[in-house]
Structures are given as C-alpha cells and as structure tokens.
Amino acid sequence: MTFHSTPNVYVNQVHLKVTDLVRSLTFYEEIIGLKVLSQTEKSAVLTADGKNPLVTIEDPDGVIPKEPRRTGLYHFALLLPNREDLAACLKHLVESGYPLQGASDHLVSEAIYLGDPDGNGIEIYADRTSEQWQWMNDSIEMDTVALDVQDLFSQWKGDVWQGLPAGTIMGHIHLHVADLREAERFYCEGLGFDIVTRYGGQALFISTGRYHHHIGLNTWNGLGAPAPSKSSAGLEHYTLLFPSDEERQKAVERLQKMNANIIVAQDRIQVKDPSGTQIILAVKKESVI
Fold this sequence. Notes:
The protein is an alpha+beta fold and 289 residues long. 19% of the residues lie in helices and 36% in strands. The protein is built from five helices and 19 strands. A hairpin with a 7-residue loop joins β14 and β15 (215-218). The protein has a single domain (2-283), classed as 2,3-Dihydroxybiphenyl 1,2-Dioxygenase, domain 1 (Roll). 42% of the residues are buried. The strands form three sheets. A nine-stranded mixed β-sheet has the order 11-6-7-8-5-12-15-14-13. Strands 2-3-4-1-16-19-18-17 form an eight-stranded mixed β-sheet, with helices on one face. Strands 9-10 form a two-stranded antiparallel ribbon.
C-alpha cells in the first residue's frame, strides 16, 4: 500500500464523538471488526492490528445527536488489503443483519457503505491494482455502478470471520464542505494535495502520489452548509500524516499565508478547514489521538 506511506500525505486516524460509548463500542467491535487498543470511561481507541490506532470514539459530556445537513464527515474509509478480505467482510455484514447503505464499484475500487449508530458514515473497501486504474493526463476515471456481489462472494475462502485483517488502514476520508472553491484552495494550495477528478461542481477528489483519492470533498449537504455545533455527535477531528517535519512546516507556512486558523501546542499542530472541520497535522511515526 505505497499510496499510504512516505513521501505521501494521507489520513491515518479519525476521532469521533458518539452519544453512547457502550453502544458504539459494541458496533465497532462486533459489526465492523475492530479491536480495542486502549479505553477509558469516556473513550476508546480502536485498531485493526493491535498496534496502530485507526478510530477513536469519545462520549463527551453534553453530547447531542448528530445534527443534519452540516459540514464535516460524509464517511471515513477503511481500506482492506485485498478483494478476498472485502468478500469475507461483506459476508459477515450480511449475516449480521446490520443494515447496509450501499455497495458500489468505483472502477478503482469496490466498496461497502454503512453508518454507525450515531449516523457517522463508514466505507469499507478494497482497491483494484493501480495498473488497472485509467488516467487521462492528471485525471483519474472513477464512477459509481452496482457492485457485482456474486462475483465478489466467489472470492471468499470459507474462513470464519475474525474481524478486520491486521493490514487494514485508513484509506481516505470524505467530507461535506460549505464551498468547493474555498475547500480546493485550502486543501490544494495550502496542504499540497493534487486534484485527481471533479464531479461537476459538487464534488472534488484529491490526493498525493497519484492515489485515486486520499480526501473527497462535496457540497451535497448544501452550499453554505453550517458547521456542526461543538456538542454535536460526529467528527471531532481527523489526522493527516506528513512524511517529515520539514514537509509539515511547509504546509503550515502556506496555510499561514492564507490566514488559516492554526493552533500550535507543543508538537501538536491543529488547523480548521474553511468549513470548520478540525485537522491534526502530524508527522510519520507519531501517534496522535
């Protein structure tokens, strides 16, 4: 999975606010198949490999149900090592009886969609090999068509479900934004991502290192959609991993020239995008929760 390693910049963790920690923990362990890495009375850090955190769930005091039609999380996406793992995961999800929201073939990948008990969107997917992706200059061909479920199931090896495989990583994040032009300027001119495809004037997909996308951005919750209140369940922040302090500092300097809202506390650097989504700018080998 070279698209999620040096020298690329990519998402490696998400931190979610939930309204019931016990309920959410049951879902993420039994339905999604993550494991607890550490836990307190109000939060839990979840992992696939027992070492690297992927998702933190927190039940803060005063949290309220997820507010509709706001900016913030559309979905976070867990990338499985291969198609056989996706087949096993889909079989488990179907047998669990938990409602799915969709299953799609995006040409570059195959994906399953569902939501957690608070309505936080989740994609679980497997990439096709990059040799199978179709590029036209700097634009990649992606689509949304029906997943061939029967063909996918033919890849299942008959193994008993043991949870998500250890090689599972955070593949990408997809965000609702208020203004696509502002988002493009912030993420591309500021953070240094490249545009890989546009869906009309409503969605934009960006990456580093010619991945099909590390971040998706859309205005499907409405132009000018407000940011969620601080007490709303949903995305608290996500973490972007930079290959070095130098590359992170270059991004910080570009963002400062754009008058972005940057907060530095010791080695923790936090910034808000123009739609109010909080991002931690971390350096590879750090573990930021």
